[in-house]
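User: As part of a screening pipeline, I want to sanity-check one entry by hand. Below is the sequence and the SMILES for 2-acetamido-2-deoxy-beta-D-glucopyranose. Please return the complex as structure tokens so I can compare it with the automated output.
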Amino acid sequence: MAWKTGLLLPLLLLLLGPAPARSFGQLPLVLNTWPFRNATVAAWKTLAAGGSALDAVETGCATCEQQQCDGSVGFGGSPDESGETTLDAMIMDGTTMNVGAVGDLRRIKNAIGVARKVLEHTTHTLLAGEAATKFAESMGFINEDLSTNVSQALHSDWRARNCQPNYWKNVIPDSSKYCGPYKPPTVLKRDGITYEDTAQSYGHDTIGMVVIHKTGNIAAGTSTNGIKFKIPGRIGDSPIPGSGAYADDMVGAAAATGDGDILMRFVPSYQAVEYMRRGENPTTACEKVISRIQKYFPKFFGAVICANMTGSYVSKHFKINHGRSSLVRFQMGKIHGLLINTTY
Ligand SMILES: *[C@@H]1O[C@H](CO)[C@@H](O)[C@H](O)[C@H]1NC(C)=O
Ligand SMILES: *[C@@H]1O[C@H](CO)[C@@H](O)[C@H](O)[C@H]1NC(C)=O
Ligand SMILES: *[C@@H]1O[C@H](CO)[C@@H](O)[C@H](O)[C@H]1NC(C)=O
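Assistant: Here is the complex for your manual check:
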């Protein structure tokens, strides 16, 4: 969708409750990196039913997994080179700084649910691959094929295009022309510093969600099926604490979306929270993080959402229309987005 066309990076935001601007200002807050409205509504309903911030993040992201938001979350999307869909997810509790995450999860649909089980029932942070699937089964999740006609068609089209695009470099045969299997060349040419193109045009995104409960508890989470035609075993930024998302009740939270292979090198969500800890407002924190990345990867296109503990997520640069489902275009550095502001 918008990501692939590179035109807009929509950002869905619901300002919930009759918004009495008292000590907790604009809380509760549900913020998500895309206009995945159903996910945001599900998170809100969870809060309204007495759920915690963690419950809301889990339900919101799980909604996207079930509804295959934009093909980029849940089963049946982003087949890897072998045609399999694998999932990454993470959930973080900003009250306890506890995190549960799964990477390269196979044959289990509800990745954020498994991440929550890692958080609740283990002292680990991140489980990966087939062993994460075993863990999920032991926690009662169903082992099932994640491929669909859509993901199979994507994969066979890709094979028919000589496996273009792909994520290999410096291999033989030439990965820009041929399918693998690939091998390293006997002599590796080094021609100075080169910055990789970011893979933005391939189309990829994720759901990143931040929830601030009216009591001030903050949670954040992500769920994604990664990028199309990834090399099997690839894990993106989404399940990495501090990269895909980060939350700290004492400061706020952030979540990132974009080219995960680049993003994770900058730990952007952690960095954004740290900027806010040092007194930056959410907008400046987000902008500084993006510009750090763009210094090295000028073509990088991505976004970080930032919210501070008092529920502020916009600066004076942003205009907000109050009222139900009003859309406001905004621009933040290189980030273009749609802000959907709904008051219930
Ligand atoms: C949102 O949920 C409704 C049902 O509750 C469904 O009909 C609709 O297709 C969903 N929207 C998206 C974008 O998946
Ligand atoms: C998937 O493809 C099979 C045959 O290739 C077909 O029988 C089935 O109806 C398709 N399913 C959907 C949901 O389109
Ligand atoms: C959150 O950001 C807003 C807007 O910049 C600012 O007015 C408010 O003081 C910040 N809250 C905290 C706790 O820093």
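Points to compare against the pipeline: The longest helix spans residues 53-67. Residues 38, 67 surround 2-acetamido-2-deoxy-beta-D-glucopyranose (ligand 1) (CB under 6 Å).
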